[in-house]
Amino acid sequence: MYDAREARWMDVIQIDVGRMVSDSVWPANGIIYLSDYRTSNAVVRLKNGSRLPPNGLTIATDLPLYVWGHYNTVNKRGSALLCDAITFLSPAWLDSRSNLSLSNRVPTSQNVNACVMTGHVPTVYGGGYSGGLENLLRFLENWSSQTVTYRGSMIDLWYSRRNTRAWVYGGYYTAPQRNWGFDTDLLDPDNWPPGTPKVHTVQRGAWRQIS
């Protein structure tokens, strides 16, 4: 697939979540770790993710991640997506049109339920703006007349190291109607994604970014 924001073709490592569930081959702990540096353009893409394994699913990768179509919408489970950068691709996405002009990339509405931990491209003082929280979830389609419904929790802890082109409105995408909100089901620890740390004591300290 071609990522018009990054202006390059991507080598896609695709996870068919629906096939994983139908074949009962999910990991026992509900966590998939994935890294691949055989090419500089390696990315991970999730498809057929409407239904997750019974105990939920966490995807953790140091690569860019693409969510293709509805995700975790049937019998919602605990879900987390940890990645370098995250991009939503609508159910109508076609790889064959990915390198054509924006008018050829016409989406249909999308629903995603997942916690997201990802990176962003920093705002440069006197230069480009990063797009803010509303653009932490990235898009590549002409979304103007469609809606993206998202429930979860978004955490931004680092700068993206792989998908690093600056945010610019228009050109490679237009924004959807954003029906976004915190998933109140996460207030119950029984609904947390696999691998979520359970902390009993919090001690105030300090943090710094080392790279």
Which SSEs are present, and which pair or pack?
Layout lengths: L1 E2 L4 E2 L1 E6 H6 L8 E4 L7 E6 L9 E5 L3 E4 L10 E4 L3 E4 L20 E11 L16 E3 L7 E13 L17 E6 L29
Parallel strand pairs: 3-5, 4-6, 5-7, 6-8, 7-9, 8-10, 9-11, 10-12, 12-13
Antiparallel strand pairs: 1-2
Explain what you see.
The protein has one helix at residues 17-22, and strands at 2-3, 8-9, 11-16, 31-34, 42-47, 57-61, 65-68, 79-82, 86-89, 110-120, 137-139, 147-159, 177-182. The relative contact order is 0.18. With 211 residues, it is an all-beta fold. The protein has one helix and 13 strands. Strands 4-6-8-10-12-13 form a six-stranded parallel beta sheet, with no helix packed on it. Strands 3-5-7-9-11 form a five-stranded parallel beta sheet.
In short:
Helix content is about 5%, strand content about 35%.
Give me some keywords for this one.
211 residues; mainly beta; six-stranded parallel beta sheet; five-stranded parallel beta sheet; 3% helix
Strand content: 25-35%
The secondary-structure class comes to mainly beta
**How far apart are the termini?**
29 Å
Number of beta strands: 13
Helix-strand pattern:
EEEHEEEEEEEEEE
Total helix count?
Answer: 1
* Radius of gyration from CA coordinates: 17 Å
Overall pLDDT metric: 94
| Overall 3D shape | globular
Helix content: under 10%
- Taking strands numbered 1, 2, ... along the chain, how are they ordered across the largest sheet? 4-6-8-10-12-13
Main sheet specs = 6 strands, parallel
Residue windows where pLDDT falls under 50 for at least 5 positions: none
Q: How many structural domains?
A: 1
